[in-house]
Amino acid sequence: MGWTKRQYIEQAFEEIGLAAYIFDLTPEQLQSALRRLDAMMAGWNANGIRIGWPIPSIADGSDIGVDAKAPDIANEAIYLNLAIRLASSFGKTLSSDTKMYADAAYSNLLNQTSAPTPERQFPDTLSRGAGTKPWRSLDNTQFMKTPSNPLQAGEDSEINFD
Predict the structure, then answer these.
(1) Most buried among 20, 65, 77, 118, using CB within 10 Å?
(2) SS3 state of residue 64
(3) Is the dihedral angle over the CA atoms 51, 25, 17, 14 positive or is it negative?
(4) Per the domain annotation, does 80 fall within a domain?
(5) How confident is the model over 41-89, as pLDDT tens digits?
């Protein structure tokens, strides 16, 4: 079982120096942090970081005790970035290390969850560029060469794009 939303919130509060074992968080503070957490995750979802987070359809429609269904690689990025969002409203200043770790964790998560860029082959009608002179190339042309290894649809058939 993964982390619950409450665990992310408590870990974020611990990061800003308001650990639950020392300070009693009020239900209003927890609910406010939950709204911020869900808003942050909705923003990440809109930016292409889709990790299966249960995003509520209304502001207070989230359950703090529900399993967040986030992969393990996302845990540090979630609670550190939530701590950054919560710190100023509690009058806390985070260390530069926390900010650095949050940025690194977010970048790592972004790298792990973003789709790879699809490969493209240029058509033979595409110019090589203004600086390319025909006498500088072996084939004496200013256009891209037809790919020598075209995409294959099967054993011996090519894919044609019309």
Answers:
(1) 77
(2) coil
(3) negative
(4) yes
(5) 999 988 888 888 888 888 778 889 989 989 999 999 999 999 999 998 8
